[in-house]
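re the bet — no i am not wrong, look at it urself. input seq straight from the record:
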Amino acid sequence: MFSLFTPHYSLFVVHITQEDLKSVILGTGLVTEEEFDSAKEEAFRGGQTIQDVLIGREDITEDYLVDYLAQYFRVPIIDLKKIEIKKEDIELLSESYAKTHKVLIFGVDKDRNILNIAMTDPLDLETFEYVRAKFSNMNAVVYIMTPASFKHGLKQYKRKIGEEFNKIIED
């Protein structure tokens, strides 16, 4: 892995070798090797991920990077800002687990036994295996999402709490 100093608040993919990350990012054509190496040094000094540095310096956008990572990982992209997650789906994982592991369940197709999982890091096998084991009767399909999409998805938990509060007040 590329950094032992990845801060807790970082939302980006961490289960990719530095060489593979470099290959993906240089493959975009938006970042030179010198810019990547500079971001690597800055990330090490600042306790950040290389991705966070490149995005922070506006060398590459979050959406563009996720698009390339989706191609690399061979997983589809989901933008949770464009869909509404059903209450019963969001509740399948606790909010604390979702926050800690940057994973959300955004769709369940009971007829086809499909569980749609959004992750900021589709190579986080420990999280994937936990979710898959918890719902062993379902076929899990992993999607990659941007950190912004993840933050938006987390708001669905707050929406759920707000709806429950309003229901209590109305009753």
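see?? The chain is about 50% helix and 10% strand. told u. also The two ends are 53 Å apart (CA to CA). so pay up
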